[in-house]
């Protein structure tokens, strides 16, 4: 479908941007445009037969390539020519808003491409007018709406919440606010906001009497006309998990671009995991039983509902009894934990559920599925009644109970999924699911949380994304590990027939020095390594420079801070003392005032932090950032690889560490004029067999390896 006319349109758009913005064309940027255009050119046009090759490309484009311009001028013309919608997904809401507020308008002005665009957010970012009405007219706690997850948020005090809700309804009425949380002039405490919003399970959609004023549906309406839809990874994955087309257009009608795409596999895992907290689920069942008893008198007037309503109390009671049995079984499993092992988390090797837990899990899976079926039938009857002008039940009561039943159904389905995952036992899964139980303590009371998660996102994305999307572009500055795409292929399941390309950064890395200094210890001796950092950092850091010191563990960061000379502690801004944004603000302020400044940070400062020019002269990395093997998902993945005869350390740990080291060292050079130093206080890079592979995966810095 990549016709000569379409190629010309892409070239002209790029040339126009370069000329009007007085930019020099970059070789890497042009490579990226060509790769995207050729990959999306595999999408069949109207009447064309599929090529048999996936319209997917994975592009690692180094910092400074100009990815946003490249994928925009390449993908927008192709999407328009094919009649597809371009969905650009960023990793965060902040990047999303930058793309809509700054990048796209700029590209539109300078490229001579004509396109429309809209910002997409989930329901939880918008106020629910129906809930707001109930909170104000019936009073908080009297609205009749049963909380979906009462354990997640404490109910705010009425004296605190009602003035906020009143201000919201007034602002909506005056037209001063569009219902978008991000456009509210002040901060809204999470519990207060949560009470005034909803999700898909509690939304009555087109049947809602407030649909014409609904902030979410108004925003969604804009998406139906936009050429480019800007979302974030979570929203795209949530839409795919709902089957596609629930919030965004159908995947078959979309070309997706995942910026910061190295996050995609991990984001996908979180959307397909399940959990159940036994003690709070018991409390929720109790509240639901009381609520159903109150509602039976009202809803019983609806024809055909008496039978389903009559089944609910027994179903709730049966599930409650079985949950209490499960709680006893789980408690017994913790009693069997060997002394010296972690007594707060019980991970099941190879994802296999103990035989003592499987029967009650199967019973609970069946019970919650039966409860879900009953609730689903009741919800359907309520939806029909909402459309009936002559219903025996008032609209207000119908709406309240639609919210309640929808929320109960959502939680019952999620709980059924967890127990079904435990009922299967996990003996024949390849790869296995990760299954683990955590002991929770609150005010001296014990509770148990059961979790289940895939260990790889490959099967999920193979089912929901790759075969359904019209086309997909994955791009990031860090996708490869050890100069290979194998790690991303393993985790994402992307076809090996996709197009893969590494586009080098235009930066001159010889302007920066990568140094491994002499040290008489390695991080394996944690105490000696910490002592060495306390002694050496004052030698390595210049008092008048801007430095970023990155640690892999909070304990070592705190120990080094406490051990270092007091004169240095005054210069240090440490993660945890203030918010990330505040630390960065104070750092820039000190540098602008001509003072030296040092940031002590953990993993969140090793990625996504932009300190160009004078704001970062020196990056110190305490050690090669091997992951601490305390994640049940990572432990289960390593276990599976070892069981297949692989080497989990070389196949998982080393590539992951190499990728994180590239990201951490990437904090130094943020513009073409930047220079400085990266110091790695870890001699394993030079002494261990895997060190050479990690070293060769780093950018071509000038090296000082002592």
Automatic annotation (TrEMBL):
<dbReference type="InterPro" id="IPR014001">
    <property type="entry name" value="Helicase_ATP-bd"/>
</dbReference>
<feature type="binding site">
    <location>
        <position position="128"/>
    </location>
    <ligand>
        <name>[4Fe-4S] cluster</name>
    </ligand>
</feature>
<dbReference type="InterPro" id="IPR045028">
    <property type="entry name" value="DinG/Rad3-like"/>
</dbReference>
<dbReference type="GO" id="GO:0046872">
    <property type="term" value="F:metal ion binding"/>
</dbReference>
<feature type="binding site">
    <location>
        <position position="203"/>
    </location>
    <ligand>
        <name>[4Fe-4S] cluster</name>
    </ligand>
</feature>
<feature type="binding site">
    <location>
        <position position="214"/>
    </location>
    <ligand>
        <name>[4Fe-4S] cluster</name>
    </ligand>
</feature>
<keyword id="KW-0479">Metal-binding</keyword>
<keyword id="KW-0004">4Fe-4S</keyword>
<dbReference type="InterPro" id="IPR039000">
    <property type="entry name" value="DinG_proteobact"/>
</dbReference>
<dbReference type="GO" id="GO:0033677">
    <property type="term" value="F:DNA/RNA helicase activity"/>
</dbReference>
<dbReference type="GO" id="GO:0005524">
    <property type="term" value="F:ATP binding"/>
</dbReference>
<dbReference type="GO" id="GO:0051539">
    <property type="term" value="F:4 iron, 4 sulfur cluster binding"/>
</dbReference>
<keyword id="KW-0378">Hydrolase</keyword>
<dbReference type="GO" id="GO:0043139">
    <property type="term" value="F:5'-3' DNA helicase activity"/>
</dbReference>
<comment type="similarity">
    <text>Belongs to the helicase family. DinG subfamily. Type 1 sub-subfamily.</text>
</comment>
<keyword id="KW-0238">DNA-binding</keyword>
<feature type="binding site">
    <location>
        <position position="208"/>
    </location>
    <ligand>
        <name>[4Fe-4S] cluster</name>
    </ligand>
</feature>
<dbReference type="InterPro" id="IPR010614">
    <property type="entry name" value="RAD3-like_helicase_DEAD"/>
</dbReference>
<dbReference type="Pfam" id="PF06733">
    <property type="entry name" value="DEAD_2"/>
</dbReference>
<dbReference type="InterPro" id="IPR006555">
    <property type="entry name" value="ATP-dep_Helicase_C"/>
</dbReference>
<keyword id="KW-0413">Isomerase</keyword>
<dbReference type="GO" id="GO:0003677">
    <property type="term" value="F:DNA binding"/>
</dbReference>
<dbReference type="GO" id="GO:0006281">
    <property type="term" value="P:DNA repair"/>
</dbReference>
<dbReference type="InterPro" id="IPR027417">
    <property type="entry name" value="P-loop_NTPase"/>
</dbReference>
<keyword id="KW-0411">Iron-sulfur</keyword>
<dbReference type="GO" id="GO:0016887">
    <property type="term" value="F:ATP hydrolysis activity"/>
</dbReference>
<protein>
    <recommendedName>
        <fullName>ATP-dependent DNA helicase DinG</fullName>
        <ecNumber>5.6.2.3</ecNumber>
    </recommendedName>
</protein>
<comment type="function">
    <text>DNA-dependent ATPase and 5'-3' DNA helicase. Unwinds D-loops, R-loops, forked DNA and G-quadruplex DNA.</text>
</comment>
<keyword id="KW-0547">Nucleotide-binding</keyword>
<keyword id="KW-0347">Helicase</keyword>
<keyword id="KW-0067">ATP-binding</keyword>
<dbReference type="GO" id="GO:0009432">
    <property type="term" value="P:SOS response"/>
</dbReference>
<keyword id="KW-0408">Iron</keyword>
<feature type="domain" description="Helicase ATP-binding">
    <location>
        <begin position="15"/>
        <end position="333"/>
    </location>
</feature>
<dbReference type="InterPro" id="IPR014013">
    <property type="entry name" value="Helic_SF1/SF2_ATP-bd_DinG/Rad3"/>
</dbReference>
<dbReference type="Pfam" id="PF13307">
    <property type="entry name" value="Helicase_C_2"/>
</dbReference>
């Amino acid at each position: 479908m990549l016709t000569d006319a379409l190629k010309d349109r892409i070239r002209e758009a790029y040339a126009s941007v370069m000329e009007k913005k007085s930019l020099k064309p970059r070789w890497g940027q042009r490579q990226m445009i060509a790769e995207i255009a050729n990959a999306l050119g595999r999408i069949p046009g109207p009447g064309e037969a599929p090529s048999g090759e996936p319209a997917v490309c994975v592009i690692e484009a180094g910092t400074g390539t100009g990815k946003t311009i490249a994928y925009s001028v390449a993908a927008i013309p192709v999407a328009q020519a094919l009649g597809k919608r371009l969905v650009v997904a960023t990793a965060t809401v902040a990047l999303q808003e930058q793309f809509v507020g700054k990048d796209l308008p700029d590209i539109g002005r300078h490229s001579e491409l004509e396109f429309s665009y809209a910002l997409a957010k989930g329901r939880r970012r918008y106020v629910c007018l129906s809930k707001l009405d109930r909170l104000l007219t019936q009073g908080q706690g009297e609205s009749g709406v049963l909380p979906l997850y009462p354990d997640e948020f404490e109910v705010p005090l009425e004296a605190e919440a009602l003035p906020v809700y009143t201000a919201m309804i007034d602002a909506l009425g005056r037209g001063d606010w569009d219902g978008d949380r991000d456009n509210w002039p002040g901060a809204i405490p999470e519990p207060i906001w949560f009470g005034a919003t909803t999700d898909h399970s509690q939304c009555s959609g087109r049947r809602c009497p407030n649909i014409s004023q609904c902030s979410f549906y108004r925003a969604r309406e804009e998406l139906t006309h936009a050429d480019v839809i800007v979302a974030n990874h979570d929203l795209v994955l949530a839409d795919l998990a709902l089957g596609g087309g629930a919030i965004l257009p159908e995947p078959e009608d979309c070309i997706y671009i995942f910026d910061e795409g190295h996050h995609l596999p991990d984001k996908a895992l979180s959307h397909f995991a399940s959990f159940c907290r036994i003690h709070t689920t018991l409390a929720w069942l109790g509240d639901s039983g009381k609520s159903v008893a109150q509602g039976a008198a009202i809803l019983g007037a609806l024809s055909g509902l008496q039978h389903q309503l009559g089944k609910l109390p027994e179903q709730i009671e049966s599930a409650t009894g079985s949950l209490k049995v499960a709680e006893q079984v789980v408690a017994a499993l913790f009693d069997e934990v060997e002394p010296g092992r972690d007594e707060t988390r019980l991970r099941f090797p190879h994802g296999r559920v103990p035989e003592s837990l499987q029967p009650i899990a199967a019973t609970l899976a069946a019970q919650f599925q039966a409860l879900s079926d009953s609730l689903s039938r009741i919800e359907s009857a309520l939806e029909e009644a909402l459309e009936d002008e002559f219903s025996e039940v008032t609209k207000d009561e119908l709406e309240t109970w639609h919210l309640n039943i929808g929320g109960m159904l959502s939680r019952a389905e999620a709980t059924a999924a967890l127990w079904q995952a435990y009922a299967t036992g996990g003996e024949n899964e390849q790869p296995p699911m990760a299954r683990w139980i955590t002991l929770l303590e609150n005010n001296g009371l014990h509770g148990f949380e059961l979790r289940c998660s895939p260990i790889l996102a490959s099967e999920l994305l193979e089912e929901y994304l790759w075969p359904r999307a019209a086309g997909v572009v994955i791009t990031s500055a860090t996708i490869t590990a050890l100069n290979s795409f194998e790690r991303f292929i393993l985790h994402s399941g992307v076809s090996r027939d996709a197009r893969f390309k590494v586009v080098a950064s235009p930066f001159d890395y010889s302007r920066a020095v990568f140094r491994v200094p002499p040290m008489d210890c390695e991080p394996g001796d944690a105490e000696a390594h910490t002592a060495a950092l306390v002694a050496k950092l004052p030698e390595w850091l210049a008092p008048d420079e801007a430095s970023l010191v990155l640690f892999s563990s909070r304990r070592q960061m705190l120990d080094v801070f406490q051990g270092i000379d007091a004169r240095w502690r005054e210069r240090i801004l440490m993660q945890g003392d203030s918010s990330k944004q505040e630390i960065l603000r104070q750092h820039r302020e000190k540098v602008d005032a001509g003072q030296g400044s040092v940031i002590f940070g953990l993993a969140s400062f090793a990625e996504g932090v932009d300190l160009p020019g004078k704001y970062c002269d020196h990056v110190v990395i305490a050690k090669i950032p091997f992951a601490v093997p305390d994640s049940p998902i990572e432990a289960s993945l390593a276990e599976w690889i070892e069981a297949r005869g692989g080497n989990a350390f070389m196949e998982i740990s080393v590539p992951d560490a190499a990728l994180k080291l590239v990201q951490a060292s990437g904090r130094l050079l943020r513009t073409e004029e930047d220079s400085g130093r990266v110091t790695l206080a870890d001699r394993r890079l030079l002494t261990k067999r895997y060190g050479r592979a990690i070293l060769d995966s780093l950018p071509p810095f000038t090296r000082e390896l002592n």
